[in-house]
Amino acid sequence: MGRSPCCEQDADVKKGPWTPEEDKLLVDYIHKHGHGSWRRLPKNAGLNRCGKSCRLRWTNYLRPDIKRGDFSKAEEDLIIQLHATLGNKWSSIATKLKGRTDNEIKNYWNTHLRKKLLSQGIDPVTHRPRTDLLAGLPNLLAAANLGGAATGQLPLDINAIKLQADAAKFQILQGLVRVLATATAAPAAAPAGIDLMTILGATLTPNSGGLLGQHQLAGVDLSRLGQYDGNYSLPPLTNSSQPTRPPMSSMSPDGLLERFASGTGVPSGDVLSSPELGHGGPRGSNITTPVAPPPMVAADDHQCNTPGGMSSEQTPASSTFDGLASLNLDDVDINIDGCWTNMLLEPPVWLNNNNSSEMYLP
DNA sequence: AATACCTACAACCGCCTTTCG
DNA sequence: TCGAAAGGCGGTTGTAGGTAT
């Protein structure tokens, strides 16, 4: 227990990238003698390296059966599938991918697959749709409002905070948009996933100190709620199968978020102006909000009400800002001069096929 | 052209488990 | 049975090359 590093006793061993000469010495020695004891190998092979370093160099790079080059789609899918069941057990995953090393798979995961999943709105840790987008809302809104407070005591760059809050709000809004958009089509396909309605319900219901006023339920056909099976999943963020729309970057989420945060509700057809927070999007950019999905779960769902807004789904490995850079904002279906109907090309069937106006608040 | 920033990946570090005398 | 040595694993860091400003 508490063993010292294997090479600590020899401070002169070389570290850093291997040279071709060192590689040759190592390969030649192993071909002749096998690796035997890794600790004794460097001395026997004439290498000024730690045995552990030799082992890693051999197993991760020099071994003849290592397959190099890009990962195929099949390999990608297999890694994702295995990671979903095994977690970060890279060595176990590597045993299923012939010729790939655990280190290579781990690196590929961290540099490619993790980002890929994030861009699709999937938590790479849980392999389930991300919930932290909504969970972080209260704190981020608080940060955004710092600029309006006459505190003046903190030596913080308020503009920087605003920028951060703006960026986060865009992402949060994306999450809301996707939740709302998904809710319209979800009954057709409802694979296992998080309970988004639970999240929205707990987040938005007035009883839970949420964001929306109770009266917003008026006009919603609650009898159709049975169509919701509690397992809506998020669609990929970069779904661009819909007609071209103005880029999201041309509108501001401030108004919408402010309304959500205030608990005053958003009347149907209500055109929200942006500058509530004083640093919003372009002047005159308006958005019209559809009704949020009705709260399905009562305020006794404490998951989203805990201090700090952390849900049990959230992990340190996926912060609110993760994947922000890779998000394709231009694919978010929000129209600056119209309403969100463009993003809801399909009728809101889960509420009422005959009268889409029920999607809007009175 | 110079610099800053980003990305990918090889390599290292430290802890845990297994093996062996 | 115990403890040290060795191997293995996952997380993290360093760096080279590419790209943007």
From TrEMBL:
Q: Which residues lie in Polar residues bias regions?
A: 236-252
Its cellular-component GO annotations read: nucleus
Question: What is the protein name given in its UniProt record?
Answer: Uncharacterized protein
By its UniProt entry, which Pfam families does this protein fall under? Myb_DNA-binding
Q: Which molecular function GO terms apply here?
A: DNA binding
Species name: Oryza meyeriana var. granulata
Show the PANTHER family listed in the entry: F14D16.11-RELATED (PTHR47994)
- Where found, per UniProt? Nucleus
Q: Which domain of life is it from?
A: Eukaryota
Q: Region Disordered: what ranges?
A: 231-292
Give start and end of each Myb-like domain.
10-62, 63-113
SMART domains, A to Z: SANT
- Ranges for domain HTH myb-type: 10-62, 63-117
Answer yes or no on keyword Repeat. Answer: yes
Its keywords, alphabetically, are: DNA-binding, Nucleus, Repeat, Transcription, Transcription regulation
Q: Which CDD domains match?
A: SANT
Q: Does the keyword Cytoplasm apply?
A: no
